[in-house]
């Protein structure tokens, strides 16, 4: 069922205007956190570690918002969680943000805490391309990209019933 079909509520379609930017924001924030983590590991710059510490809570909020709105829109269309690849990768992103925050708070030595959080974020950066490419790798509830380089804009398939 597509967002304009009779079975879908108007609110279910409108929630996508919040879901998509929140998901992109969480990816962008984790990319920025990975950059800060790389600088922290390579140069031990305190400014990069502080930036990573500031990005993590905002990333948690963006990830929670992306997950919540994604689950709410799926529920409106009759699906629930279903271990959709993008939802699972977004959940991993949320756990990585939360893990970086937790490492900073449970480790007594600030230098070790910054380094541990940075290493966690750098390893977790492998999740970024996975979040983006899951719709190309697996059959999920999400649409493929409607437009791309060398490709004309199309709808890939209707929403699952």
Automatic annotation (TrEMBL):
GO molecular function terms listed in the Swiss-Prot or TrEMBL record: heme binding; heme transmembrane transporter activity
Positions of transmembrane segments: 12-39, 51-71, 83-103, 115-135
Major subcellular site: membrane
Pfam family, one: Cytochrom_C_asm
Domain of life: Bacteria
Subcellular location: Membrane
One Gene Ontology biological process: cytochrome complex assembly
Membrane topology designation: Multi-pass membrane protein
GO cellular component, one term: plasma membrane
Keyword field contains Metal-binding: no
Residue stretches making up the Cytochrome c assembly protein domain: 14-142
Keywords of the record: Cytochrome c-type biogenesis, Membrane, Transmembrane, Transmembrane helix
Keyword Acyltransferase: no
Function description: Required for the export of heme to the periplasm for the biogenesis of c-type cytochromes.
Family (UniProt): Belongs to the CcmC/CycZ/HelC family.
Protein name as catalogued: Heme exporter protein C
Naturally occurring in which organism (per UniProt): Ramlibacter montanisoli
Gene: ccsA
